[in-house]
Amino acid sequence: MTEMLLDAVGMVFQPANIGVAMLGIMLGTILGAIPGLTATMGIALLLPVTYYMDPVTAIILLTAMYKGGLYGGSVTGILFSTPGTPAAAFTVIDGYKMTQKGEGGKALKVALIASFTGDLFANLVLIFSAAILASMALAFGAPEYATLIVFSFTTIIGLSRGSMLKGFIATAMGVFFGMISFDPVSAEPRFAFGSDYLAGGMNLIPVLIGLLAVSEVLRHLEETRKGKGDVQERIDVRVEKQGLSFREIWDIRGVLLRSSIIGTGIGALPGLGAGLAAFMGYQNAKTVGKNRHKVGTGVAEGVAGPEASNSATGSANLIPLVALGIPGDGEAAMILSVMVLHGITPGPRIFEQNGSLIYAIMFGILLATFFNLLLNWFLTRHAARVSTIPFQYVMPVVLITAVAGSYGIHQSMFDVYVMVFFAILGYLMTKFGFSTIALLIGFILGPMLESSVRTSMIMSGGSMDIFFTRPITVGLLTASLLVILWNVWKTLRR
Amino acid sequence: MNQRDTSRPMRQIPCRWAYAAVLLFGLSLLLWIIPNQVPSRSFGEVLTPQTFPYLIAAIITACALILFLASFWRPAGQEQEVAEFPRHIFREIGWIILALLAYVLAIGWVGYYLSTFIALLVFMWLVGVRAWKLMLTVTATVSVLIYIGMGLGLRVRFPDGLFW
Questions:
Q1: Residue A489: how many CA atoms within 13 Å on its side-chain side?
Q2: Distance in angstroms (rounded) separating the CA atoms of residues B119 and A329
Q3: A173, A191 in Cβ contact below 8 A?
Q4: All residues at 6 or more sequence positions from B88 whose CB lies less than 8 Å from its CB, including other chains
């Protein structure tokens, strides 16, 4: 163990890794601050480039970009009331009011401290818990995996605010698209329509770029078409002149800690996401603490609560990914795609097979967390300036990069067609209220579910009893049923 | 969905059309695609290779059918579920999607770098940029960066097209 950790430290503290951590934070902050661009979109576009990197360097770059992007999104939210991500919407409530009171710079620094605290807490939980969870999961066989994936699907379906049935459809569509390939047992092509390309299946990265980057560009284009309301008002926030004393940070320690715990718990469960974490973090700030009655009027607690919670999910979502191989959201799916590209299979055996590498990745994420605090403490002023770049100048570049990136990995035009197909599908799905993340997770986990179910049935000689006689499968199926019933109850009450 | 932007006219399209499309897709999977595109021979398994695809298609069809039928029944006072698109959807989004499709198809014919150069200019024009110097500067810079970064740096060999 000690040797593994020392190896990991040696792997992380390479000049290239330190360089990409800094670059990732800066790029992410800039992307997050440009209206219409998000951290998720940025890392989706950068995925193909990471194919050519060492896996540790690649994942440090992506996670650094994600952390920078979340903060960049908060900058536009706090200064201009235009949250860069849905999760930043709760930060805006108090953040923008602080800006209106002339305390925008202070709000940004509170957001940064809160992001750092949430991230750090979730990182430490990831480092100390993933190996334990993975060793417990070593007892998992095919039936346990099948029911675990069913449980993940049911929690992800909860993402589909408004309709559980839409969540089912999106997930099932994802599973269907994941099935376009060879049959896992007979190895015969299915859904190929005579095409060799379809018989080989669709690669994850073009699907990710189409669903998470290009479809978002199309959606945002509607809002900013021909210069309507996209250029931010140039306001002088004097962010560099507003300090944050240690006393002020100490005063919000309770909110920071509680929100970090909430965000880590929510992030560790597949499908719940940063949006719910931010909401819970904001509720926590509103209900506990001496300043709880002032939350909503522009106080530090109202910024710290949601920001610590949503940042914590960014690292906590790696717990089920690393230990069980289950990506809980879009960001985790992107990290998974990098791991798979480099021949690393997340899951219970990952610490036996790639222990040093996994710890190196975790330490690298920790490194990015510290750089996020250090760099953005001084770069905030520039991030605020970047947010005045009109979306029209950026959008064509995003489209071109998406095409180049989709083509780049396998040098195949089929991947580009797949990207365009999922971009249009993602745009329409979002318009009609279907979750694109549910489709993505269905696409990734569908083949695993099918293999696990078919292996289980072979093990049991065709009896479904195998799913109802083992304690873990019974527990997971019960939990899935409870999640569905809770969603049904929520729908009926509405 | 359902977020009304009061500053611009929006076209409301009932969600039932989307449910009908998904229902049609599910039925075509059940009745045509799975029987013809998935082998039915079982290799000693209790489940055939078609079982899992049928299960997924059944879930899609059943959920879409419920949503479609439910869209005709609305409790009093509840508005029909709609998706909002720009009123001039073709002018605002359609041209961009068409240009993207044309660009992707043109790559194989005229080559990657030339089609990218033209596509960047077209995209910028379509989103309302009219400053020619800026358009040419952005286009040239991005094209050169892709050539250096991906072409030379990562050794990605982009299609040359049919005429080179």
A1: 6
A2: 33
A3: no
A4: none
* Confidence band for A322, pLDDT divided at 50, 70 and 90: confident
Tell which of A209, A407, A418 to mutate to test the B interface (max B CBs under 10 Å): A407
User: B37–A392: do the CB atoms touch at under 8 Å?
Assistant: no
Task: Please list, in sequence order, all residues whose beta carbon lies within 8 angstroms of the beta carbon of residue A2, skipping any fewer than 6 positions away.
Answer: none
Q: Which of A153, A190, A484, A492 to mutate to test the interface with B (most CBs of B within 10 A)?
A: A190
Provide the β-strand partners of residue A189: A182
- What are the chain A neighbours of B8 within 8 Å (beta carbons)? 228
Of A183, A396, A413, the CB nearest to B124: A396
User: By CB neighbour count within 10 A (0-12 exposed, 13-18 middle, 19+ buried), where does B103 fall?
Assistant: buried
Alpha carbon separation from A445 to A62, A216, A336, A449 (Å, rounded): 22, 23, 11, 6
Contacting residues of A for B74, CB less than 8 Å apart = none
Contact present, A64 and A372 (Cβ < 8 Å): yes
For residue B17, how many other CB atoms are within 10 A of its CB? 14
Beta carbons of A88 and A75 less than 8 angstroms apart: no
Can you tell me the distance from the alpha carbon of A265 to that of A269, in angstroms, rounded to the nearest whole number?
7
CA distance, residue A219 to nearest chain B CA (Å): 9
Give B84's strand partners. Answer: B12
Tokens of A113: 């401290």
Give the closest residue to A407 by CA, choosing from A43, A24, A49. A49
Average pLDDT in the A206-234 region?
71
Cα-Cα end-to-end distance for chain A: 52
CA distance B58 to B23: 10
A185 interaction partners in chain B (CB closer than 8 Å): 43, 45, 49
Nearest to A432 by CA among A208, A160, A174, A84: A160
Residue B56's nearest CA partner among A144, A172, A82 is A172
- Which of A201-210, A360-369, A402-411, B74-83 has the lowest average pLDDT? B74-83
Phi/psi at B10 (5° precision): -120, 150
Q: Do A162 and B1 touch (CB under 8 A)?
A: yes
Q: Which of A165, A186, A462 faces B41 most closely, judged by CB atoms?
A: A186
H or E element at residue B13: strand B10-14
- List the one residue out of A219, A205, A182 whose CA is nearest residue A418: A205
Residue A344 sits at φ, ψ, to 5 deg, of -100, 125
Out of A393, A453, A458, name the one closest to residue B129 (CB).
A393
pLDDT tens readout for residues B20-70: 999 999 999 999 999 999 988 776 667 788 889 999 999 999 999 999 998
Spell out the residues 6+ positions from residue A128 whose beta carbon is closer than 8 angstroms to its own: none
Q: Which residue of B has its CA nearest to A161?
A: B1
SS3 B129: coil
Q: Do the Cβ atoms of B138 and A223 come within 8 Å?
A: no
- Of the partner residues B49, B57, B86, the one whose CB lies closest to the CB of residue A183: B49
What is the rounded distance in angstroms from the CA atom of residue A101 to the CA atom of residue B72?
A: 49
A181-182 and A189-190 as β-strands: parallel, antiparallel, unpaired?
Answer: antiparallel
Calpha distance B132→B148 (Å, rounded): 24
Q: Is A116 or B40 the better-scoring residue by pLDDT?
A: A116
pLDDT, tens digit, for every residue of A336-350? 888 888 888 888 888
A465 Cβ under 8 Å from any chain B Cβ:
no
pTM of the model: 0.83
CB within 8 Å of chain B, chain A residues 50-79: 52
Measure A124 CA to nearest chain B CA, in Å: 35
